[in-house]
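DM from R.C. (forwarded with permission)

"hey, sorry to bug you on a friday — could you get me a structure for this? deadline for the figure draft is monday and I only need the backbone to look sensible"
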Amino acid sequence: MAIVLYLIGMSKAKSTRDRAVLLALLKSIRTGAGLTQAEMARKLGQPQSFVSKYESGERRLDVLELRQVCRAGSILMAEFVRRLEAGAE
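My reply, with the result:
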């Protein structure tokens, strides 16, 4: 089951900006680890299209999948959240 958070009163512009920050951060985890999409996908046990889709925003990750992405990119989930919050300000 995916965890979905709904924020009441969030403007569309802020939501769009936050989404862009999230997508950029997901990509930077992979590139920061020196991995191609295909290499990340292998670490995750998924096809390359899985990585492409979550990095482009076509697919959302649930919290367990996000934890796997963080681990594959050698980053703690807490650090991911810190970077997300810093970028979303």
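R.C.: lifesaver. The helical segments are 12-32, 37-44, 48-56, 63-72, 77-87.
me: no worries. Confidence is low (pLDDT under 50) at residues 1-10.
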